[in-house]
Protein backbone atom coordinates (compact mmCIF):
# COMPACT_ATOMS: atom_id res chain seq x y z
CA UNK A 1 0.00 0.00 0.00
CA UNK A 2 1.42 3.45 -0.88
CA UNK A 3 2.56 5.66 2.05
CA UNK A 4 0.02 8.30 3.10
CA UNK A 5 0.93 11.98 2.75
CA UNK A 6 0.32 14.19 5.81
CA UNK A 7 0.09 17.95 6.19
CA UNK A 8 0.35 20.00 9.38
CA UNK A 9 -2.07 22.81 10.25
CA UNK A 10 -1.41 25.16 13.15
CA UNK A 11 -3.71 27.56 14.98
CA UNK A 12 -1.66 30.03 17.03
CA UNK A 13 -4.63 31.74 18.68
CA UNK A 14 -4.92 33.96 21.70
CA UNK A 15 -4.95 31.33 24.43
CA UNK A 16 -3.01 28.47 22.90
CA UNK A 17 -1.25 26.91 19.95
CA UNK A 18 -3.02 23.90 18.42
CA UNK A 19 -1.54 21.61 15.78
CA UNK A 20 -3.29 18.97 13.66
CA UNK A 21 -1.59 16.34 11.51
CA UNK A 22 -4.02 15.63 8.70
CA UNK A 23 -4.17 13.25 5.72
CA UNK A 24 -3.56 15.45 2.69
CA UNK A 25 -5.96 13.54 0.46
CA UNK A 26 -8.99 13.25 2.73
CA UNK A 27 -8.62 15.87 5.49
CA UNK A 28 -8.84 13.15 8.16
CA UNK A 29 -7.21 14.32 11.41
CA UNK A 30 -4.69 11.76 12.69
CA UNK A 31 -2.91 13.60 15.54
CA UNK A 32 -3.66 16.65 17.72
CA UNK A 33 -1.31 18.66 19.96
CA UNK A 34 -1.72 21.80 22.07
CA UNK A 35 0.51 24.18 24.07
CA UNK A 36 -0.62 27.14 26.17
CA UNK A 37 0.09 30.81 25.50
CA UNK A 38 0.63 33.39 28.25
CA UNK A 39 -2.34 35.59 29.20
CA UNK A 40 -2.59 39.35 28.76
CA UNK A 41 -2.96 41.67 25.80
CA UNK A 42 0.80 42.14 25.37
CA UNK A 43 2.86 39.00 24.69
CA UNK A 44 6.51 38.29 23.84
CA UNK A 45 6.45 36.59 20.38
CA UNK A 46 9.16 34.22 21.71
CA UNK A 47 6.41 32.63 23.85
CA UNK A 48 4.35 31.88 20.72
CA UNK A 49 7.41 30.45 19.06
CA UNK A 50 8.10 28.20 22.06
CA UNK A 51 4.45 27.01 22.04
CA UNK A 52 4.65 26.36 18.28
CA UNK A 53 7.81 24.31 18.75
CA UNK A 54 6.27 22.34 21.62
CA UNK A 55 3.02 21.63 19.76
CA UNK A 56 4.68 20.62 16.48
CA UNK A 57 7.95 18.95 17.64
CA UNK A 58 6.97 15.38 16.76
CA UNK A 59 4.49 16.27 13.97
CA UNK A 60 6.53 18.55 11.74
CA UNK A 61 8.99 15.79 10.72
CA UNK A 62 6.01 13.71 9.50
CA UNK A 63 4.44 16.49 7.40
CA UNK A 64 4.99 17.11 3.68
CA UNK A 65 3.62 20.65 4.04
CA UNK A 66 2.78 23.04 6.88
CA UNK A 67 0.77 26.22 7.40
CA UNK A 68 0.33 28.50 10.41
CA UNK A 69 -2.89 30.45 11.00
CA UNK A 70 -2.81 32.98 13.84
CA UNK A 71 -4.78 35.47 15.88
CA UNK A 72 -5.36 38.55 13.70
CA UNK A 73 -4.07 42.13 13.96
CA UNK A 74 -1.27 41.66 16.57
CA UNK A 75 1.63 44.10 16.09
CA UNK A 76 5.00 42.33 15.92
CA UNK A 77 7.81 44.88 15.57
CA UNK A 78 11.06 43.40 14.24
CA UNK A 79 14.49 45.03 14.47
CA UNK A 80 17.63 44.91 12.35
CA UNK A 81 18.24 41.19 12.96
CA UNK A 82 14.53 40.27 12.80
CA UNK A 83 14.38 40.20 16.62
CA UNK A 84 11.16 41.40 18.32
CA UNK A 85 11.70 45.02 19.44
CA UNK A 86 9.01 44.89 22.17
CA UNK A 87 6.24 42.49 23.20
CA UNK A 88 3.47 42.21 20.60
CA UNK A 89 0.30 44.22 21.22
CA UNK A 90 -2.70 41.97 20.59
CA UNK A 91 -6.04 42.44 18.82
CA UNK A 92 -7.80 42.86 22.20
CA UNK A 93 -5.50 45.59 23.52
CA UNK A 94 -7.51 48.82 23.46
CA UNK A 95 -4.79 51.33 24.35
CA UNK A 96 -4.70 52.65 20.77
CA UNK A 97 -8.40 53.67 20.69
CA UNK A 98 -7.45 57.35 20.41
CA UNK A 99 -5.03 56.62 17.54
CA UNK A 100 -7.87 54.71 15.80
CA UNK A 101 -10.00 57.85 15.89
CA UNK A 102 -7.11 59.93 14.60
CA UNK A 103 -6.44 57.49 11.75
CA UNK A 104 -10.11 57.49 10.73
CA UNK A 105 -9.99 61.30 10.63
CA UNK A 106 -6.77 61.34 8.60
CA UNK A 107 -8.25 58.91 6.09
CA UNK A 108 -11.11 61.38 5.52
CA UNK A 109 -13.79 60.02 7.88
CA UNK A 110 -15.49 56.62 8.21
CA UNK A 111 -16.80 56.36 4.64
CA UNK A 112 -13.47 57.09 2.98
CA UNK A 113 -11.56 54.98 5.49
CA UNK A 114 -13.80 51.99 4.75
CA UNK A 115 -13.23 52.47 1.02
CA UNK A 116 -9.45 52.84 1.39
CA UNK A 117 -8.61 50.09 3.88
CA UNK A 118 -11.80 47.99 3.84
CA UNK A 119 -12.91 48.84 7.39
CA UNK A 120 -13.30 51.76 9.76
CA UNK A 121 -10.20 51.36 12.00
CA UNK A 122 -10.70 50.50 15.67
CA UNK A 123 -8.05 49.83 18.32
CA UNK A 124 -7.64 46.19 17.19
CA UNK A 125 -6.09 47.19 13.86
CA UNK A 126 -2.29 47.07 13.55
CA UNK A 127 -1.87 50.58 12.10
CA UNK A 128 -3.34 52.15 15.25
CA UNK A 129 -0.84 50.20 17.38
CA UNK A 130 2.04 51.51 15.26
CA UNK A 131 0.84 55.07 15.90
CA UNK A 132 0.50 54.35 19.63
CA UNK A 133 4.09 53.04 19.72
CA UNK A 134 5.44 56.06 17.89
CA UNK A 135 3.71 58.40 20.33
CA UNK A 136 4.43 56.52 23.57
CA UNK A 137 7.60 54.52 22.88
CA UNK A 138 9.49 56.46 20.21
CA UNK A 139 12.65 54.40 20.78
CA UNK A 140 10.81 51.13 19.97
CA UNK A 141 9.35 52.77 16.86
CA UNK A 142 12.78 54.03 15.80
CA UNK A 143 14.36 50.55 16.16
CA UNK A 144 11.65 48.89 14.07
CA UNK A 145 12.76 47.73 10.62
CA UNK A 146 9.86 45.40 9.70
CA UNK A 147 6.29 44.91 10.93
CA UNK A 148 4.75 41.46 10.97
CA UNK A 149 1.52 39.85 12.18
CA UNK A 150 1.62 36.91 14.61
CA UNK A 151 1.23 34.29 11.88
CA UNK A 152 3.82 35.98 9.63
CA UNK A 153 6.35 35.99 12.44
CA UNK A 154 5.82 32.29 13.18
CA UNK A 155 5.93 31.38 9.49
CA UNK A 156 9.23 33.28 9.25
CA UNK A 157 10.69 31.16 12.05
CA UNK A 158 9.87 28.05 9.96
CA UNK A 159 11.11 29.41 6.64
CA UNK A 160 14.55 28.13 5.59
CA UNK A 161 14.77 31.02 3.08
CA UNK A 162 14.21 33.58 5.84
CA UNK A 163 11.71 35.53 3.73
CA UNK A 164 8.97 37.48 5.54
CA UNK A 165 5.65 36.62 3.83
CA UNK A 166 1.97 37.10 4.63
CA UNK A 167 -1.38 36.46 2.94
CA UNK A 168 -4.19 38.78 1.89
CA UNK A 169 -6.53 37.57 4.67
CA UNK A 170 -4.38 38.58 7.61
CA UNK A 171 -3.01 41.65 5.77
CA UNK A 172 -6.59 42.95 5.49
CA UNK A 173 -6.72 43.42 9.29
CA UNK A 174 -3.83 45.88 9.43
CA UNK A 175 -5.56 49.09 8.15
CA UNK A 176 -2.54 49.63 5.89
CA UNK A 177 -3.86 47.27 3.20
CA UNK A 178 -6.57 47.82 0.58
CA UNK A 179 -8.95 44.86 0.03
CA UNK A 180 -10.30 46.58 -3.11
CA UNK A 181 -6.80 46.78 -4.67
CA UNK A 182 -5.52 43.64 -2.91
CA UNK A 183 -2.30 45.57 -2.11
CA UNK A 184 -0.52 47.25 0.80
CA UNK A 185 -1.07 50.96 1.38
CA UNK A 186 2.48 51.41 2.74
CA UNK A 187 2.16 55.16 3.28
CA UNK A 188 -0.34 54.51 6.09
CA UNK A 189 2.18 52.29 7.91
CA UNK A 190 4.91 54.85 7.28
CA UNK A 191 2.87 57.75 8.63
CA UNK A 192 1.81 55.73 11.69
CA UNK A 193 5.33 54.56 12.60
CA UNK A 194 7.25 57.68 11.57
CA UNK A 195 9.32 55.89 8.93
CA UNK A 196 8.69 53.23 6.28
CA UNK A 197 8.89 49.72 7.75
CA UNK A 198 9.48 46.66 5.57
CA UNK A 199 6.18 44.85 5.11
CA UNK A 200 5.87 41.14 4.36
CA UNK A 201 5.57 40.02 0.74
CA UNK A 202 1.91 39.29 -0.07
CA UNK A 203 1.50 35.68 -1.17
CA UNK A 204 -1.37 34.64 -3.43
CA UNK A 205 -3.98 32.12 -2.23
CA UNK A 206 -2.66 28.56 -2.36
CA UNK A 207 0.94 29.67 -2.95
CA UNK A 208 3.90 27.65 -1.67
CA UNK A 209 6.06 30.37 -0.15
CA UNK A 210 9.16 28.34 0.72
CA UNK A 211 10.32 25.26 2.60
CA UNK A 212 11.09 24.43 6.20
CA UNK A 213 14.61 23.42 7.20
CA UNK A 214 13.39 19.81 7.12
CA UNK A 215 12.19 20.25 3.52
CA UNK A 216 8.39 20.50 4.04
CA UNK A 217 6.48 22.86 1.75
CA UNK A 218 5.49 26.04 3.57
CA UNK A 219 2.14 27.71 2.85
CA UNK A 220 1.61 31.41 3.57
CA UNK A 221 -0.67 30.84 6.56
CA UNK A 222 -3.51 33.28 7.33
CA UNK A 223 -5.56 34.93 10.08
CA UNK A 224 -7.35 32.54 12.43
CA UNK A 225 -10.83 33.49 11.22
CA UNK A 226 -9.81 33.01 7.56
CA UNK A 227 -8.41 29.64 8.64
CA UNK A 228 -11.73 28.71 10.25
CA UNK A 229 -13.68 29.68 7.11
CA UNK A 230 -11.38 27.46 5.02
CA UNK A 231 -11.56 24.60 7.52
CA UNK A 232 -15.37 24.76 7.58
CA UNK A 233 -15.64 25.08 3.81
CA UNK A 234 -17.95 28.06 4.47
CA UNK A 235 -20.49 28.47 1.65
CA UNK A 236 -22.26 31.65 0.45
CA UNK A 237 -25.14 32.35 2.85
CA UNK A 238 -23.60 30.36 5.73
CA UNK A 239 -22.83 32.26 8.93
CA UNK A 240 -20.00 30.95 11.12
CA UNK A 241 -20.06 31.99 14.77
CA UNK A 242 -16.75 31.43 16.54
CA UNK A 243 -16.63 31.44 20.33
CA UNK A 244 -12.94 31.74 21.21
CA UNK A 245 -11.33 34.52 23.24
CA UNK A 246 -13.20 36.78 20.83
CA UNK A 247 -16.70 36.11 19.57
CA UNK A 248 -16.92 36.36 15.80
CA UNK A 249 -19.71 36.26 13.22
CA UNK A 250 -18.57 35.88 9.60
CA UNK A 251 -19.78 35.06 6.10
CA UNK A 252 -17.99 34.65 2.76
CA UNK A 253 -18.59 37.24 0.03
CA UNK A 254 -17.53 38.01 -3.52
CA UNK A 255 -16.70 41.67 -2.90
CA UNK A 256 -15.11 43.72 -0.08
CA UNK A 257 -17.48 44.92 2.66
CA UNK A 258 -16.48 48.63 2.95
CA UNK A 259 -18.99 49.22 5.76
CA UNK A 260 -18.85 52.90 6.75
CA UNK A 261 -20.93 52.28 9.90
CA UNK A 262 -17.85 50.48 11.26
CA UNK A 263 -19.88 47.43 12.35
CA UNK A 264 -18.46 45.04 9.80
CA UNK A 265 -14.76 44.47 9.17
CA UNK A 266 -14.04 44.16 5.46
CA UNK A 267 -11.50 41.35 5.43
CA UNK A 268 -10.22 39.12 2.64
CA UNK A 269 -10.46 35.35 3.06
CA UNK A 270 -7.71 32.84 2.26
CA UNK A 271 -9.08 31.79 -1.15
CA UNK A 272 -9.26 35.06 -3.09
CA UNK A 273 -12.72 36.02 -1.85
CA UNK A 274 -13.82 38.22 1.08
CA UNK A 275 -14.83 37.65 4.69
CA UNK A 276 -17.13 40.31 6.18
CA UNK A 277 -16.90 39.81 9.92
CA UNK A 278 -18.05 41.34 13.20
CA UNK A 279 -15.88 40.63 16.21
CA UNK A 280 -16.37 41.24 19.91
CA UNK A 281 -13.52 41.48 22.41
CA UNK A 282 -15.36 39.27 24.91
CA UNK A 283 -16.07 35.67 23.95
CA UNK A 284 -15.64 32.46 25.96
CA UNK A 285 -13.69 34.19 28.82
CA UNK A 286 -17.04 35.73 29.83
CA UNK A 287 -18.18 32.22 30.86
CA UNK A 288 -14.78 31.65 32.51
CA UNK A 289 -15.47 34.69 34.70
CA UNK A 290 -18.97 33.44 35.50
CA UNK A 291 -17.75 30.05 36.67
CA UNK A 292 -14.90 31.61 38.68
CA UNK A 293 -17.34 33.89 40.47
CA UNK A 294 -19.62 30.96 41.23
CA UNK A 295 -16.71 28.68 42.13
CA UNK A 296 -17.68 25.90 39.69
CA UNK A 297 -16.21 24.10 36.68
CA UNK A 298 -17.41 24.41 33.07
CA UNK A 299 -19.92 21.54 33.27
CA UNK A 300 -21.49 22.73 36.49
CA UNK A 301 -21.65 26.31 35.24
CA UNK A 302 -23.48 25.10 32.16
CA UNK A 303 -25.93 23.12 34.31
CA UNK A 304 -26.54 26.13 36.56
CA UNK A 305 -27.26 28.38 33.56
CA UNK A 306 -29.66 25.81 32.09
CA UNK A 307 -31.44 25.56 35.45
CA UNK A 308 -31.95 29.35 35.54
CA UNK A 309 -35.18 30.86 34.14
CA UNK A 310 -35.22 32.37 30.63
CA UNK A 311 -34.75 36.08 31.30
CA UNK A 312 -32.73 35.27 34.46
CA UNK A 313 -35.45 36.65 36.75
CA UNK A 314 -34.85 40.14 35.30
CA UNK A 315 -31.03 40.16 35.63
CA UNK A 316 -29.26 41.49 32.52
CA UNK A 317 -25.52 41.35 31.84
CA UNK A 318 -23.46 43.45 29.42
CA UNK A 319 -20.32 41.30 28.94
CA UNK A 320 -17.84 44.07 28.06
CA UNK A 321 -15.05 42.85 30.36
CA UNK A 322 -12.16 44.29 28.37
CA UNK A 323 -13.81 47.24 26.65
CA UNK A 324 -15.72 46.34 23.48
CA UNK A 325 -15.34 46.55 19.72
CA UNK A 326 -18.88 45.56 18.59
CA UNK A 327 -20.26 48.04 19.53
CA UNK A 328 -17.15 50.22 19.64
CA UNK A 329 -16.85 50.99 23.38
CA UNK A 330 -13.11 50.62 24.07
CA UNK A 331 -13.37 51.93 27.65
CA UNK A 332 -16.48 50.02 28.69
CA UNK A 333 -16.56 47.52 31.55
CA UNK A 334 -19.09 44.75 32.20
CA UNK A 335 -22.37 45.63 33.93
CA UNK A 336 -24.99 43.57 35.71
CA UNK A 337 -28.42 45.14 35.97
CA UNK A 338 -31.85 44.14 37.23
CA UNK A 339 -30.44 42.47 40.35
CA UNK A 340 -33.01 41.69 43.03
CA UNK A 341 -32.58 40.39 46.56
CA UNK A 342 -33.39 36.78 45.69
CA UNK A 343 -31.06 36.54 42.66
CA UNK A 344 -30.11 32.86 42.59
CA UNK A 345 -26.83 31.27 41.48
CA UNK A 346 -28.77 29.70 38.61
CA UNK A 347 -30.11 33.04 37.42
CA UNK A 348 -26.72 34.70 37.79
CA UNK A 349 -25.16 32.01 35.57
CA UNK A 350 -28.11 32.38 33.17
CA UNK A 351 -27.70 36.16 32.99
CA UNK A 352 -24.00 35.81 32.12
CA UNK A 353 -24.67 33.31 29.32
CA UNK A 354 -27.67 35.27 28.02
CA UNK A 355 -25.56 38.46 27.93
CA UNK A 356 -22.89 36.66 25.93
CA UNK A 357 -25.48 35.18 23.57
CA UNK A 358 -27.05 38.63 23.03
CA UNK A 359 -23.70 40.16 22.19
CA UNK A 360 -23.13 37.36 19.63
CA UNK A 361 -26.60 37.97 18.19
CA UNK A 362 -25.76 41.64 17.79
CA UNK A 363 -22.53 40.79 15.91
CA UNK A 364 -24.39 38.31 13.70
CA UNK A 365 -27.24 40.76 12.95
CA UNK A 366 -24.68 43.30 11.79
CA UNK A 367 -22.93 40.91 9.39
CA UNK A 368 -26.17 39.42 8.05
CA UNK A 369 -27.74 42.90 7.75
CA UNK A 370 -24.73 44.07 5.76
CA UNK A 371 -24.94 41.05 3.42
CA UNK A 372 -28.54 42.00 2.68
CA UNK A 373 -29.78 38.39 2.65
CA UNK A 374 -31.34 35.84 4.95
CA UNK A 375 -28.75 33.56 6.54
CA UNK A 376 -28.66 29.92 5.53
CA UNK A 377 -26.87 27.60 7.96
CA UNK A 378 -25.58 29.07 11.24
CA UNK A 379 -22.53 27.11 12.41
CA UNK A 380 -21.10 27.41 15.93
CA UNK A 381 -17.39 26.64 16.53
CA UNK A 382 -14.57 27.49 18.99
CA UNK A 383 -13.77 26.43 22.57
CA UNK A 384 -16.86 28.10 24.07
CA UNK A 385 -19.12 26.20 21.63
CA UNK A 386 -18.63 23.14 23.88
CA UNK A 387 -20.91 24.68 26.52
CA UNK A 388 -24.39 23.06 26.30
CA UNK A 389 -25.84 26.11 28.03
CA UNK A 390 -24.31 28.47 25.51
CA UNK A 391 -25.53 26.35 22.59
CA UNK A 392 -29.13 26.23 23.82
CA UNK A 393 -29.34 29.79 25.08
CA UNK A 394 -27.79 31.15 21.88
CA UNK A 395 -30.23 29.15 19.72
CA UNK A 396 -33.07 30.73 21.75
CA UNK A 397 -31.69 34.27 21.54
CA UNK A 398 -31.09 33.90 17.76
CA UNK A 399 -34.49 32.28 17.30
CA UNK A 400 -33.02 29.82 14.81
CA UNK A 401 -31.35 26.40 14.85
CA UNK A 402 -27.60 26.16 15.25
CA UNK A 403 -25.37 23.55 13.64
CA UNK A 404 -22.48 22.18 15.65
CA UNK A 405 -19.95 20.67 13.25
CA UNK A 406 -18.56 17.61 14.99
CA UNK A 407 -14.87 18.16 14.24
CA UNK A 408 -12.86 20.47 16.48
CA UNK A 409 -10.18 23.07 15.78
CA UNK A 410 -11.41 24.41 12.45
CA UNK A 411 -8.69 27.07 12.33
CA UNK A 412 -5.93 24.44 12.41
CA UNK A 413 -7.93 22.30 9.97
CA UNK A 414 -8.16 25.27 7.58
CA UNK A 415 -4.42 25.81 7.90
CA UNK A 416 -3.90 22.13 7.09
CA UNK A 417 -6.14 22.52 4.04
CA UNK A 418 -4.08 25.52 2.94
CA UNK A 419 -0.89 23.43 3.40
CA UNK A 420 -2.39 20.62 1.28
CA UNK A 421 -3.37 23.21 -1.34
CA UNK A 422 0.18 24.63 -1.48
CA UNK A 423 1.55 21.08 -1.72
CA UNK A 424 -0.76 20.17 -4.62
CA UNK A 425 -0.04 23.30 -6.68
CA UNK A 426 -3.73 23.16 -7.80
CA UNK A 427 -5.93 26.17 -8.60
CA UNK A 428 -8.42 25.33 -5.84
CA UNK A 429 -8.09 24.01 -2.28
CA UNK A 430 -8.47 20.21 -1.96
CA UNK A 431 -12.05 18.96 -1.65
CA UNK A 432 -12.38 17.50 1.82
CA UNK A 433 -15.67 16.14 3.17
CA UNK A 434 -17.58 18.81 5.10
CA UNK A 435 -17.92 18.15 8.84
CA UNK A 436 -21.28 16.68 9.83
CA UNK A 437 -22.86 17.73 13.06
CA UNK A 438 -25.71 17.97 15.48
CA UNK A 439 -28.43 20.62 15.21
CA UNK A 440 -29.44 22.49 18.38
CA UNK A 441 -32.91 24.00 18.61
CA UNK A 442 -34.54 25.96 21.44
CA UNK A 443 -37.71 28.07 21.86
CA UNK A 444 -37.18 31.62 20.51
CA UNK A 445 -36.55 34.24 23.25
CA UNK A 446 -36.80 37.64 21.55
CA UNK A 447 -37.61 39.25 24.93
CA UNK A 448 -34.13 38.37 26.24
CA UNK A 449 -32.46 40.28 23.41
CA UNK A 450 -34.88 43.20 23.80
CA UNK A 451 -34.08 43.48 27.53
CA UNK A 452 -30.36 43.42 26.71
CA UNK A 453 -30.71 46.23 24.15
CA UNK A 454 -32.81 48.32 26.58
CA UNK A 455 -30.21 47.95 29.35
CA UNK A 456 -27.39 48.76 26.92
CA UNK A 457 -29.19 51.88 25.75
CA UNK A 458 -29.47 53.02 29.38
CA UNK A 459 -25.76 52.42 30.03
CA UNK A 460 -24.36 53.46 26.63
CA UNK A 461 -26.93 55.62 24.82
CA UNK A 462 -26.64 55.42 21.05
CA UNK A 463 -23.97 52.66 21.02
N1 LIG B 1 -17.00 23.34 27.90
C1 LIG B 1 -16.71 24.64 27.85
N2 LIG B 1 -17.60 25.58 28.30
C2 LIG B 1 -17.34 26.88 28.25
N3 LIG B 1 -16.17 27.39 27.78
C3 LIG B 1 -15.24 26.51 27.31
C4 LIG B 1 -15.47 25.11 27.32
N4 LIG B 1 -14.36 24.50 26.80
C5 LIG B 1 -13.49 25.50 26.49
N5 LIG B 1 -14.01 26.71 26.80
C6 LIG B 1 -13.39 28.04 26.68
O1 LIG B 1 -12.97 28.26 25.36
C7 LIG B 1 -11.89 29.22 25.35
C8 LIG B 1 -10.80 28.74 24.42
O2 LIG B 1 -11.35 28.61 23.15
P1 LIG B 1 -10.43 28.70 21.86
O3 LIG B 1 -11.34 28.63 20.67
O4 LIG B 1 -9.34 27.69 21.94
O5 LIG B 1 -9.81 30.18 22.05
P2 LIG B 1 -8.68 30.94 21.22
O6 LIG B 1 -8.79 30.40 19.81
O7 LIG B 1 -9.05 32.37 21.32
O8 LIG B 1 -7.36 30.66 21.87
C9 LIG B 1 -11.42 29.35 26.81
O9 LIG B 1 -11.86 30.60 27.34
C10 LIG B 1 -12.11 28.15 27.50
O10 LIG B 1 -12.38 28.36 28.87
O1 LIG C 1 -9.59 40.38 16.19
C1 LIG C 1 -10.13 39.37 15.79
C2 LIG C 1 -10.84 39.36 14.49
O2 LIG C 1 -10.88 40.60 13.85
C3 LIG C 1 -10.09 38.12 16.64
O3 LIG C 1 -11.02 37.18 16.20
C4 LIG C 1 -8.69 37.57 16.68
O4 LIG C 1 -8.37 37.01 15.41
C5 LIG C 1 -8.48 36.57 17.81
O5 LIG C 1 -9.23 35.42 17.67
P1 LIG C 1 -9.46 34.24 18.72
O6 LIG C 1 -8.20 34.03 19.49
O7 LIG C 1 -10.63 34.62 19.56
O8 LIG C 1 -9.77 33.05 17.84
UniProtKB/TrEMBL annotation:
Record flagged with keyword Iron-sulfur: no
Domain called Carbohydrate kinase FGGY N-terminal: residue spans: 6-221
Reaction equations catalysed: D-xylulose + ATP = D-xylulose 5-phosphate + ADP + H(+)
Annotated catalytic residues: 224
Site feature: Important for activity: 11
Enzyme superclass (EC): transferase
Keywords (A to Z) from UniProt: ATP-binding, Carbohydrate metabolism, Kinase, Nucleotide-binding, Transferase, Xylose metabolism
Pfam families: FGGY_C (PF02782), FGGY_N (PF00370)
Molecular function, one GO term: ATP binding
Residues the entry annotates as binding substrate: 72-73
Superkingdom classification of source: Bacteria
Domain Carbohydrate kinase FGGY C-terminal: start-end pairs: 240-423
GO term, biological process aspect, one: xylulose catabolic process
Documented EC number(s): 2.7.1.17
Family of the protein in this entry: Belongs to the FGGY kinase family.
Function: Catalyzes the phosphorylation of D-xylulose to D-xylulose 5-phosphate.
HAMAP family reported in the protein's UniProt record: XylB
Name of the protein: Xylulose kinase
Organism listed in the record: Rothia santali
Amino acid sequence: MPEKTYVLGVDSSTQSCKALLVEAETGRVVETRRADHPGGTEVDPAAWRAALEEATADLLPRAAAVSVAGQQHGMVLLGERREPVRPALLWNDTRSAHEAEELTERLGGPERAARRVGSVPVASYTATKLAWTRRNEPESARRTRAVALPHDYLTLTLNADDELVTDHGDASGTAYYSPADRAWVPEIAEEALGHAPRLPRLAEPGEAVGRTRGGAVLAAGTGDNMGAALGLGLRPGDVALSMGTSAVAMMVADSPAEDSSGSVSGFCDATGRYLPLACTLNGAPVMDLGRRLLGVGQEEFSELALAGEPGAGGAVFLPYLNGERTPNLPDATAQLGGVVGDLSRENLARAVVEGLACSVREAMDRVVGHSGGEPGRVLLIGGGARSRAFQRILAGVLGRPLELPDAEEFVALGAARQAAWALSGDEEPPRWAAAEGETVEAPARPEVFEAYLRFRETMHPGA
